[in-house]
Amino acid sequence: MTDAAFVASRLSQVRERLSAVNGEHVRVVAVTKGHATDTVAAAIAAGCTDIGESYAQELLHKNRALLADCLNRPQVHFVGGLQRNKIRKLTSIVDVWQSVDRLDLGEELARRSPRARVLVQVDLSGEQTKRGCSAATAPDLVARLTDLELNVIGLMGIGPTGAPEKARPGFAMLRGLVDRLGLAECSMGMTADLEIAVQEGSTMVRIGTYLFGPRPPRQQKIER
Prior knowledge:
The protein has 224 residues and is α/β, with parallel strands linked by helices. 39% of the residues lie in helices and 16% in strands.
């Protein structure tokens, strides 16, 4: 069972790291994917106001068990790979869709959840395990999603595997694109590279293992 005091201590450390690089304004999205429902409860008790999830079935389970009746319900961010056929089940739970990377997802969101808040995910690494549209096509996707009357609030990107400094060029590019498009949010940075991300203009960082410890082995996870 995840302890709220442990999470609160780790959250304080994350905020100290943010403060050290003038990132007091940066929102911490606590990524609870792969952890049990008690981890979400601990996160809320520790003061996390934004929760990130990646798997539809897991999020549905957690919502039934806790979030639906939670007096201090956090903002729920969907940060993982999104499938069109899962959107219908999630629209009453998800507050921010951070991983919209193609038009068909936007069309389904617009149909199921008009004016939904979305971020367009941009590929910063070229790694096959990471999603996102290209930087070149991002402006057109933002425009077309806006035409669908979705509320495009920003862009999201994941830095490359390896040393944190390797992420700087991609983060700088993403921030420049956010500014050029006149968007408000720039979601980039995780535990290892959050300082680099904030220095380059992140407004949200996504932190998981550092706050909650290692995720359980796959066979112990809730079915996705």
